[in-house]
Specification:
- The protein has about 160 residues and is mostly beta strands.
- Helices cover about 0% and strands about 40% of the residues.
- The strands form 4 sheets. It has a 4-stranded antiparallel sheet, with no helix packed on it. A 4-stranded antiparallel sheet has the order 10-11-12-13, with no helix packed on it.
- The longest helix has 4 residues.
Length: about 160
């Protein structure tokens, strides 16, 4: 797995301007660049990384990867990504991005993520903390739907945890 934390910069009238790609991850099929909309204004939330979760989504016994974005841009590369591990199907570790197939539509400004069985049905549910409204994604046999609740306030949450 290749993970690099790169901060590219250029100078604009004496002010250092950070570009928006902070972390690049590359593994067969798992290609991800973190976007945070950094534009040189130096907002605190732009300096924070987003979350990552390793979760078994498709029931094949191997672990899949959910990666958060830090952007509210509606472009496809700016949404959260769910990479499904193909080990059980092919015998090799490789990934396929299948977030939309599994119901992942998140375009929030991602801060954190945690995984737990919110509804006690045996499936792993996902809680997303955001700059803005948080989200609970309920896993219904491998397809995620957003569950409404009091966590959907326009505040700033960073870390998240499930416990029993």
């Amino acid at each position: 797995m290749f993970i690099s934390a790169c901060q590219n910069s250029d100078t604009d009238v004496g002010i250092e301007k950070q570009l928006h790609n902070l972390v690049d991850i590359r593994y067969p099929g798992l290609v991800f660049s973190h976007h945070n909309q950094m534009d040189g204004a130096y907002y605190f939330h732009e300096m924070m990384g987003a979350g990552l979760a390793v979760i078994g989504v498709d029931g094949d016994g191997d672990l899949d990867v959910y990666l958060r974005q830090g952007s509210v841009n509606l472009a496809a590369e700016s949404r959260d990504h769910l990479f499904i591990n193909q080990w059980a199907e092919s015998g090799e570790v490789s990934f396929v991005e299948m977030g939309t197939v599994f119901g992942i539509k998140n375009f929030g400004y991602g801060m954190g993520i945690c995984v737990g069985d919110y509804d006690n049905n045996g499936d792993s549910d996902i809680f997303l903390s955001n700059l803005g409204a948080d989200e609970l994604l309920e896993n219904n046999n491998g397809y995620f739907t957003e569950k409404p609740g009091p966590w959907q306030t326009e505040l700033w949450s960073t870390a998240a945890v499930f416990f029993d």
